[in-house]
Amino acid sequence: MASRKLLLLPGDGIGPEIATEAQKLITVLNEATEGGFEIESGLVGGAAYDDCGEAISDTTMELAQASDAVLFGSVGGPRWDGVPYEKRPEAGLLRLRKEMGLFANLRPAICYPALADASSLKRHIIEGLDILILRELTGGVYFGEPKEIVDLGNGQKRAVDTQVYETYEIERIARAAFELARTRRGKVTSMEKRNVMKTGVFWNEVVSRVHREEFSDLTLEHELADAGGMKLVREPKQFDVIVTDNLFGDMLSDIAAMLTGSLGMLPSASLGKPDDASGRRKALYEPVHGSAPDIAGQGIANPIAMIASLAMCLRYSFAMTREAEALEAAIADTLNDGIRTGDIMAEGCRKVGTSEMGDAVAERF
Amino acid sequence: MASRKLLLLPGDGIGPEIATEAQKLITVLNEATEGGFEIESGLVGGAAYDDCGEAISDTTMELAQASDAVLFGSVGGPRWDGVPYEKRPEAGLLRLRKEMGLFANLRPAICYPALADASSLKRHIIEGLDILILRELTGGVYFGEPKEIVDLGNGQKRAVDTQVYETYEIERIARAAFELARTRRGKVTSMEKRNVMKTGVFWNEVVSRVHREEFSDLTLEHELADAGGMKLVREPKQFDVIVTDNLFGDMLSDIAAMLTGSLGMLPSASLGKPDDASGRRKALYEPVHGSAPDIAGQGIANPIAMIASLAMCLRYSFAMTREAEALEAAIADTLNDGIRTGDIMAEGCRKVGTSEMGDAVAERF
Ligand SMILES: CC(C)[C@H](C(=O)O)[C@@H](O)C(=O)O
Ligand SMILES: CC(C)[C@H](C(=O)O)[C@@H](O)C(=O)O
């Protein structure tokens, strides 16, 4: 069995604690299956800045490029608020996304039955929810130039960000959306602000053309991003796959995650384009939640989103569908058995810390 | 009593129907008080385009500039999907906002007690909700240049939008936020994406300085817009005034409106800077909801957001606080009496149409 190279980048805040639990599961995988996973580790975010003055070093970038998949924890925290913009913790994550070409960010918003009551929404609105937000991840306002603050010399400054999309960027994310929808319920909802933004007009046009020319057997709907956000809050189950740009995707996927009441549970996958020769695609897997500096280092963080990110890694990077499903089932079983970290604690359940939660999932795997 | 000049711009979809109900209330106001309101009407949006080929004519713009306040219905609909970008219905609204200098958009998200169960959120999460989203309305990505789609000549096109903010634009909206917070619970939460956008870094910096130098007795908090959106869904009552840019404000205020379960109920005010000499500020009042083309012309639309926009007009343009409160009380009484349009219908209530709803509020005023 060929070895499988994983790069583990725990990052900041609760990142290292939850990464340890992912590592635990990888050890089990190596024992139980012929996984053959080899793990290297590196620094990213504030941790990397403290170490080498950059949010990610060139050496770590090379390791990432050479790996079969990156497992990423989380970055950022108030400690690095004063750091220059180019070196802030998030810059490490953005560099990974951009240089690895990870244009397709899959963010499933599912509601674990055992947690339906943890949502701020009424149970019947989110029970059984299973939607997928596909966010464009290497374009838009995140990377467009100019991006600057200019001194106008009259006591005034001007700050500028630029949202840019080219044809090929929208085509490839649209194709990814339709391909994913085909394995699901066959419906794609594209969201933009075509009534205000030229990138929205263009996004709408390209997605519609890709649909017409290549996927006309599937359903395509369009929503303005603000109206789409409302529908998400009102009746999220009407969606299947939502495809949207980098910034709207950031907002909408976080809101969708929060709707489920399961923020600490939700993983994500960021995928590049398959290599022409090997078919291998660069990939990074990370929880949707952030670095939660307020609870870092206390051993109480919920590691499930990180473990579920490992499950996505098995599925999308290694086609280990059976193992991915087994890991997801182990998570669901753990929850059904009433084992909870503080963030999802409920009456009658047993409250555990990060490490016990990792153990509980490992035992059920 | 000096006359008060209102320009009524019903617009498209359900706009004309709900505008008629606002007019009904103005008639009552003129009879009951010494309001002395004079109403002129004009076309905007698709209706204006059909009439003169523009989303608003220069003549109507002049009327708007000369009025004491504009009452705006709603614009847009699939009928005008093929219209050139510069002439699309929304362009009329955007021109009004920009040329009248309406930089401060007040969007209260309140939960009417009688409607708490209409929300998709659990009752205890939204009962008693009363927050105010203050959205910057004449800057950001809505108006920045370049804003274009360019043919790159190799089968590829590139679309660009530009988000721009200058010092004075952020200063004045920040001041407006603090002044509003002072009349409320004294807390402002500023939202941006400073971890990704230079305009976010700059926004954060200017709002912080205005707070430090001019309003340090009030509380200022900062949230990343994505995290802020999540907190809004999770626990909206933690906020008082939220101040944010044009695009985030569009998304967040719609989501907040939907949380309340009272979208058809929520008004907004868009205000300019007070004139140095007269103290008068240009103003436009409009419902937060859209033109709902699917139910237009059936006499079933909910006119309450439009009537509540008139109440905001009384308060902010004419300092008629007592009358504004009486009108708001009449709305609450109508709801408490179980009178409902279809969108907010509940068991045991009486279902009425647009015109009956207007009558019901007028009777209780
Ligand atoms: C950490 C930050 C740069 C990032 C983003 O805005 O993309 C985060 O919010 C996310 O959603 O992954
Ligand atoms: C109609 C449209 C231009 C508008 C906007 O995006 O500002 C609307 O969504 C709003 O929120 O007032």
> Shape of chain A from CA axes?
globular
The CATH class designation of the largest domain in chain A is: Alpha Beta
Assembly level = homodimer
> Which class do the helix and strand fractions of chain A yield?
alpha/beta
- In N-to-C order, the SSE pattern of chain A is EHEHHEHEHEEEHEHEHEHEEHHEEH
Unreliable stretches of chain A: none
The pLDDT mean of chain A sits at 96
> Helical residue percent of chain A?
40-55%
**C-alpha end-to-end distance of chain A:** 22 Å
The CATH topology of the largest domain in chain A is Isopropylmalate Dehydrogenase
Radius of gyration of chain A: 20 Å
Report the portion of residues of chain A in β strands. Answer: 15-25%
The total of beta strands of chain A comes to 14
In total, the number of domains of chain A comes to 2
- Sheet with most strands: strand arrangement of chain A: 2-1-3-12-11-4-5-10-8-9
Q: Ligands bound here? A: 3-isopropylmalic acid
The H-level CATH homologous superfamily of the largest domain in chain A, spelled out, is: Isopropylmalate Dehydrogenase
Helix tally of chain A?
Answer: 12
Function (chains A, B): Catalyzes the oxidation of 3-carboxy-2-hydroxy-4-methylpentanoate (3-isopropylmalate) to 3-carboxy-4-methyl-2-oxopentanoate. The product decarboxylates to 4-methyl-2 oxopentanoate.
GO cellular component, one term (chains A, B): cytosol
Pfam family, one (chains A, B): Iso_dh
Family (chains A, B): Belongs to the isocitrate and isopropylmalate dehydrogenases family. LeuB type 1 subfamily.
